[in-house]
């Protein structure tokens, strides 16, 4: 029996809306990836080179701590992983989340929100964190995406 999880990190709520719509549309379980230390608006100021997000994204080995994990990851064979695009890639908290779970034999499918940039080097940056899984090509969605478009995309996996 195929079971699907939609896990997501959302700094401002935009990705959360998309993740909830995707989970509802495809009948998947939903898991919010929560940082141990929540991000403030100052942390997310990409114009400030010393903001938390800027510092994290400038050091690709940095792994922000995740406050929660999926206790029953073994039951899922497809994991859609959602996030906002930061600096043309997934935030490093996504690597933290992926690395804390056994993903062997699972399909990992990234999806993202962004003010305008595409997926960039996302898959290249996530590949090492997805050992033993099949990392599928991800997609960035606009905030006004329709459930029918999400469903058609998700059915490809």
UniProtKB/TrEMBL annotation:
Pfam families: Flavodoxin_4. Gene3D superfamilies: 3.40.50.360. GO terms for molecular function: FMN binding; oxidoreductase activity, acting on NAD(P)H. Residues 3-156 form the Flavodoxin-like domain. This is Flavodoxin. It comes from Enterocloster aldenensis.
């Amino acid at each position: 029996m195929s079971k699907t999880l939609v896990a997501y990190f959302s700094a401002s709520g935009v990705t959360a809306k998309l993740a909830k719509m995707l989970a509802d549309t495809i009948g998947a379980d939903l898991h919010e990836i929560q940082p141990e230390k929540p991000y403030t608006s100052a942390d997310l100021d990409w114009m400030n080179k010393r903001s938390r997000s800027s510092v994290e994204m400038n050091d690709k080995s940095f792994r922000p701590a995740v406050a929660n994990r999926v206790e029953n990851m073994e039951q899922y064979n497809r994991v859609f992983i959602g996030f906002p695009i930061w600096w043309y890639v997934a935030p490093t908290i996504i690597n933290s989340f992926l690395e804390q779970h056994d993903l062997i034999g699972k399909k990992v499918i990234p999806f993202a929100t962004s003010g305008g940039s595409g997926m960039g080097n996302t898959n290249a940056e996530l590949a090492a964190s997805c050992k033993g899984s099949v990392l599928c090509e991800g997609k960035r969605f606009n905030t006004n995406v329709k459930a029918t478009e999400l469903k058609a995309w998700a059915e490809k996996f």
